[in-house]
Amino acid sequence: MTAHHQDGHILEATRTGLRPPPLYKVLLLNDDFTPMDFVVDVLQRFFSMDGERATRVMLQVHREGQGMCGVFTRDIAATKVEQVIAHARQHQHPLACVMEENE
Q: In angstroms, rounded to a whole number, what is the distance separating the alpha carbons of residues 99 and 77?
């Protein structure tokens, strides 16, 4: 750190304790009713995944019960969750989308 002089006083730069905002994972949860091709479409539409990656995440949701769509700041994660749920309900699918703090 550097000391600066101004009007006979010494000014020292201090570091603030700012940390980056916490990040949140957005997850899709498996159900027995939502078609796999709809899940792939959701991943491409709302998470900008290419077809291959969207298919891999969809299969992870199907096999493991959940799949991660991405990691975002809180506001973006919440918006994506709302968009996915609204889109699924509009198409009469029970697809669940949640967010949890990334550790």
A: 7
Nearest to 63 by CA among 40, 29, 23, 14: 29
Kind and range of the H or E run holding 69: strand 66-73
Greatest extent of the chain over all pairs of C-alpha atoms, in Å: 74
Q: What phi, psi does 6 have (nearest 5°)? A: -150, 125
0.85 exceeded by the pTM?
A: no
Give helix 36-47 / helix 74-90 axis angle, nearest 10°.
Answer: 140
Q: Among residues 78, 65, 92, which one has the least CA distance to residue 22?
A: 78
Q: Each residue of 29-45: pLDDT tens digit?
A: 999 999 999 999 999 99
42-51 CB contacts, 8 Å cutoff, 24+ apart:
42/84, 42/87, 42/88, 42/95, 43/69, 45/87, 46/80, 46/83, 46/84, 46/87, 47/80
